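Z., the sequence and structure:
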Amino acid sequence: TGKGESFVTTYTLDELTKMLDPDSFFRVNRQIIISRHACRAYENIENGKISIDLSVDVRAPVIVSQKRAKAFRNWISAVAMT
């Protein structure tokens, strides 16, 4: 969480993705769902992938695959429009 807390759940990430507001949360990859508020910056990296800088500590780099990159750009650009 944004406060550094962790929660255990029996839901899969697919199930959580369906429960969360798609305007506020994005499924980055097979392991991570991010909040719009946690995304500080992002940059294009090799092979069309995107590296995301989050305001919360994560154990590994947060990378959006080439396949999901366009959806991420569309999602994050909606921030500037709201």
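The helical segments are 13-19, 66-81. Residues 3 and 48 are 31 Å apart (CA to CA).

Let me know what you think.
H.
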